[in-house]
Amino acid sequence: MSTSHNRIHVMHGVNLDQIGRRDPAHYGGLTFLQLEQAIDAYASELDVNARFFQTNHEGEFVEELHRVADLADAAIINAGAWSHYSRALGDALQFAGVPAVEVHLSDVHAREEWRHVSVLAEGCVATVAGKGVDGYREALAILKAELER
Ligand code: DQA
Question: Residues with Cβ < 8 Å from 20, sequence gap 6 or more?
């Protein structure tokens, strides 16, 4: 079913724009452009509309969360390292007003202990980690189902 209630804002935070230069064992070796293109292809398959945002500035990410309900119906959030400690993002997510899924390319639970904590999870309907780019497909499917409920 095609619906106009299907705009999913894919929000990437700090250092995600550099994934092509980061450890491929964790991040899979795709460039950021290739990652966004893969997500866009998944979105087309699932008949949802993906839009994209990335910043390395925490305040800009907060401000994007302030306006996300005007831009989209749902959000996928990979906030990078901020996910583990930015209470400011966690607070903003609480009143963002759209359902969100947290995604991590790498298996954060199998990495350093500080990555095991998420200050965003509470504001999300689900978390998908350790599945690489496929994790975004899963997140899109979760949000599509959520929007069709
Ligand atoms: C990440 C995991 C974080 O721990 C890390 O700081 C990142 C990327 C991921 O996608 O696996 O920058 O969010």
Answer: 29, 30, 31, 32, 34
Q: From ligand 1's centre to the CA of 90, what distance in Å? A: 16
Active-site pick, 9, 12, 84, 104: 104
Topology annotation, domain 7-148: Rossmann fold (3.40.50)
108 lines ligand 1 (CB under 6 A): yes
What residue spans define the domains of the chain?
Answer: 7-148
CA atoms within 13 A on the CB side of 35: 27
Q: Is the pLDDT of residue 109 over 80?
A: yes
Is 42 marked active-site? no
What is the distance in A from the centroid of ligand 1 to the CA of 18?
Answer: 11
Q: Look at the pTM and tell me if it is higher than 0.90.
A: yes
pLDDT at 67: 98
